[in-house]
Specification:
By secondary structure, the chain is mainly β. The protein contains 1 helix and 15 strands. The protein is elongated.
Length: about 270
Amino acid sequence: MKNLLAILIVLICAGQSIAQDKIYKKDKSVIECKIVEIGLDEIKYVDHLLEDSPIISIAIDDLSKIELSSGRVIEFKDRLTDPNSYADDRKVALKFHFLSPLMEHIGFSYERSIKPGSSFESEIGIIGIGFNTNREVRSNGIYISAGYKFLKTPDFYSKRFKYSHILKGAYVKPQLIFTAYELNNERYDPFGNAYDNKENVVAGAFIMNLGSQTVYNNLFLIDYSVGVGYGFSSQSNSSDDYNSYRANHYAFLLGSSDVPLAITGKIKLGILIK
C-alpha cells in the first residue's frame, strides 16, 4: 500500500511538472511555455524546455487567448469590437424625419445596435400628413423600409481604440423601401370642369446610403444621409399620362422607367432610449 501511494504521488508530481501554459496566437500557432506575467499590453513567459530561458515578451494584440496549466482560459478581444467596451452606451434610438412634414408625410425610424460596427434600422412613413405644397395633388398611404448599417472602421489602428459611441460615426447602409398610396389628381375635362382622378400607386427601391450619425451625451442624435439606387413604380410614364406621372414617392424620388434611378436624402433627429 505504501508503495502504491508513493507511485501515485510521483505520477501526480510528474503530471504537474509536465503541464504547461499555452499561448494561442492569431496566426493559429501555439506556444507551450510557462507564463510569468500577464500585463495590459503584453505577456511575459519563459521557454519550459530551457533551464536558463530568458523572459520573453509578446504583445497581447497578437494573441487570441491563453490557456493556463490549471485549465483556465483567458480570451483577448479587440476593444473596437468587444461589446463589453460599450456597456454604458444606449443601443436603441427613435428618430423623427425632420423635413418629412414639408413633403406631405411624417416619417419615423427605429434603430437598434446589433454589435459594435453594425445596426439594424427600420422606417415607417404616414403619407397624407403634413404640408401639401401642391393643392391639385393629394395622397394617402404608407411606406416602410429596412436597412443594415455598417459603421466605418478607422483608417489606422491604435491600442485600446474604440468607437466614441456604439451608434456614432460615418456609415454605409443598404436599404429596401416599399411604398403604397392612393394618388388623387385633380384633372379637367374638355369643358374645363374639374374632377378627381384617383390612382393606386405601388413603388419600391433598393438604395445604397452614405451618411453620418452624431450622438450627444448618450441621449440625443442627429443622422443625415444621401442615397442612390434603383427603383420601380406601377405608374406609367407614357406621353399620354405625363401629367399624372409622379416622381416623388415620399420615401424616395424616382426617374422614368427608361432611367429607373432612385435617390433619397434625409435629416433625422432622435433620442436614445436604452
